[in-house]
């Protein structure tokens, strides 16, 4: 089966959270790999917003696939291939995940798939 999740995030909202709780927000939500990548980009908030949307999309797909316990943001990691393709992982199980992210200056969207063998 294939289970889908999607999410959209306003970049402005992420920028506000980063300004309000500079360290706390980032450390609670993001992995060090994500922080390293996003902070190296010209407009970090856009990429943090993309990864926020990605984590929400992965959560939705995992819940659709039957996950029942709360899924912490930090349990979902977003990495990149050398080509820039986003790759999601989850420490809470062995779900097979597929992910796509897009963003403008104002919004970020992500779609995630959980693929199971049944
Ligand atoms: C991949 C591509 C379509 C992205 O288009 P874009 O409009 O710049 O992308 P968006 O702004 O909508 O989204 C950006 C996100 O796309 C994702 N992305 C980047 N490169 C990607 C790729 N090659 N494949 C899939 N997703 C990709 C990333 O998640 C990125 O966000 P991030 O930098 O925060 O991780 C475009 O950059 C492209 O055509 N690149 C050339 C790819 C290429 O030559 N590949 C070689 C093999 S044929």
Describe the structure.
This protein is of the alpha+beta class and 118 residues long. It has one domain (2-115): Alpha-Beta Complex (Ribosomal Protein L22, Chain A), CATH 3.90.470. The chain is built from four helices and five strands, in the order βααααββββ. The protein has a three-stranded antiparallel sheet. A two-stranded antiparallel sheet has the order 2-3. A hairpin with a 3-residue loop joins strand 4 and strand 5 (107-115). The longest helix has 21 residues, at 44-64. The chain binds coenzyme A.
Describe this protein with a few key phrases:
binds coenzyme A, Ribosomal Protein L22, Chain A, 4 helices, two-stranded antiparallel ribbon, 118 residues, three-stranded antiparallel sheet, alpha+beta
Question: Can I get a quick summary?
Answer:
This protein has 118 residues and is an alpha+beta fold. It has helices at 11-20, 22-29, 32-39, 44-64; strands at residues 2-10, 76-80, 86-90, 96-103, 107-115. It is 40% helix and 31% strand.
């Amino acid at each position: 089966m294939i289970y889908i999740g999607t999410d959209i995030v306003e970049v402005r909202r992420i920028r506000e959270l980063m300004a309000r709780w500079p360290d706390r927000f980032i450390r609670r939500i993001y992995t060090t790999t994500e922080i390293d990548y996003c902070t190296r980009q010209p407009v970090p908030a856009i990429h943090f917003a993309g990864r926020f949307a990605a984590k929400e999309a992965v959560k939705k797909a995992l819940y659709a696939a039957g996950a029942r316990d709360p899924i912490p943001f930090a349990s979902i990691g977003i990495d990149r291939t050398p080509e820039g393709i986003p790759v999601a992982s989850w420490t809470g199980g062995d779900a097979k995940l597929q992910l796509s992210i897009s963003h403008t200056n104002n919004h970020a969207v992500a779609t995630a798939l959980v693929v199971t063998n049944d």
